[in-house]
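#help-structures

NK: newbie question. if I give both the sequence and a SMILES, will the prediction place the ligand too? trying with pyridoxal-5'-phosphate
OV: yes, paste both and it writes out the complex. here, I ran yours:
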Amino acid sequence: MNIYADNAATTAMSAAAIDAMNLYLRDEFGNPSSLYSAGQRAREALDSARERIAACINADPRCIIFTSGGSESDNQAIISAAELGKRAGKTHIITSPIEHHAVLHTLKKLQKQGFDVTYLPVGTDGIVSAASVAAAIRPDTCLVTVMFANNEIGTVQPVAEIGAVCAERKVLFHTDAVQAVGHLPVDVTAQKISMLSASAHKFHGPKGVGFLYAARGIKLTPLIEGGAQERGLRAGTENVAGICAMAAALEESAASLEENSRKLACLRRKLIKGLSSIPHSALNGDAEKRLPSNVNFCFEGIEGESLLLLLDDKGISASSGSACTSGSLDPSHVLLAIGRPHAVAHGSLRISLGEDATEEQVEYIISSVTEVVAYLRGFSPVWRDLCAGKSEFIL
Ligand SMILES: *Cc1c(COP(=O)(O)O)cnc(C)c1O
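OV: that's the protein plus ligand as structure tokens.
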């Protein structure tokens, strides 16, 4: 059986997205800045994509700018808020320690420039509370940036509550919604979101394209200088094919969101129940306040990397933590932040199901993981010491 269970890393493009992309690559290849009709048709396609994308998150289309993806959107949102804050004498930023590196590394850079960053506490459930945001806001706070849903453990943050706190205290609220858009109900108006980042390849669109929403009145700082594209906020000839494919992918995802969520949440519960019966294992993050597609476990006494390789032999593509951290020996910053000790954080497994996942596949994943974990423990010196009582079980 071949199962792609790493949809948090990237998703397969939908047929609708591929069709839209092909049209603008092959036939309608005009430059949207050209005045002749082929250029104008490309311009109209961009305008239409902007309107359709805005409708999916209940935004004004004028508030959407197209970018190269989630990382760029995160960078631009945070740098813009920092720039605005600095001009007003406000240099305090609030975030969580479980953010994506596109957020954390941008903040590290700002800290070196004199910004003061507060990292909110995160419970073992992987949730940041709105009350902790409220308590951390100071008169000099210029930005709160808390992700919508976590890319490793899938926990969904109380975004509407955080948005309400920020609106009341008149502080900008940015959310990295890369894992949420197309998968969870997102409404920038109702949820009082000032800025939002999204990426097409996480909802069955192409890689290298995304968008940034910034509410009216927020002056964005361009990261790329040049032509007047995207109202001067993001220079460079627009990725017309990618943007049109993104709009097609998002419309489709948004239309089947509820149905998919219900189905996936059932499969997720089954998967959590099955994997929980492996001895000395633990689910990471709240069991219900998480993406319908996400399951993340720690297994004591094994290395996540070996687990992945053996699962790959069984046809299962999964991940340990995030695609960005694999290849490095550091354990996941997210697992450490929710209180998993180093020894346990190394033995993690993330399964992120696709909308086409089946019960049969979930059963195969459960039996394969159970078998591989037992096999690896069979020759793990760490496991031997645990069983001999030379060290203590954590899970
Ligand atoms: C994938 C991801 C990103 C990065 O998006 P790219 O389009 O790959 O740059 C940022 N944040 C989160 C939460 C992600 O899952």
